Please model this.
Amino acid sequence: MMVGDGRRWSPVVRKRAALLRWHGGLFLWLLSVAPLRSPPPAARGDDGNIRLPILMPSRTGRTTMGGRLHPHRRGLATTLAVATLALGTLAATPAAADEAADHAAILKAEQDWLTATESGDRAALERLLHPTFVNISPLGGMRNRAESLSAGPPPPGSSQTLTELKVRTFRDSAVVTGVNRYRPNAKAKPTDVVFTDVFVRTPHGWQVVSSHNSIRPAPAER
Model:
């Protein structure tokens, strides 16, 4: 019933990747503020005497030997830049995949919760409802997990449909907002119940810890 949390990098791998990116950025900064320059070769002047290289101010304001950036240092700078960019891309890709997997898992848990409620599947509800679960009804009544598990299923012939679902994740917690369109029977006018559900990631998957419900006024009443 509960789906996996998606493939994730371990904390050790993420820490090492962040450390490598930090070191790469530090090396690039050092190269920009203190470039290594190759001294120009000694040359003979018109009078035949050997002239030594002249100290020249660099763009950073420091006095350095006149000349160009050492070719080996240029190669190192390029390598570090490419490595830093690659590490950043690798770190971003699993994060995006993790978020998409979490959203899919949470939406499935939301739908599974509704299905279990309609069918009276107590075992499924026990897996979905967190031990600290609290439900707040549109009339302001509060029910804990035990009371919610003891509640009977909706009346026969009634239906519930989830719409306008939006998920926001915050590492190991998530907030789902949406509308539950309820009909007591096929011919009855539907009632839209706006809800806010809070989920947390547990060893057993995503579980709901809180649910707050409000009745949306009919268009003429707004």
Confidence is low (pLDDT under 50) at residues 1-10, 33-37, 54-69.
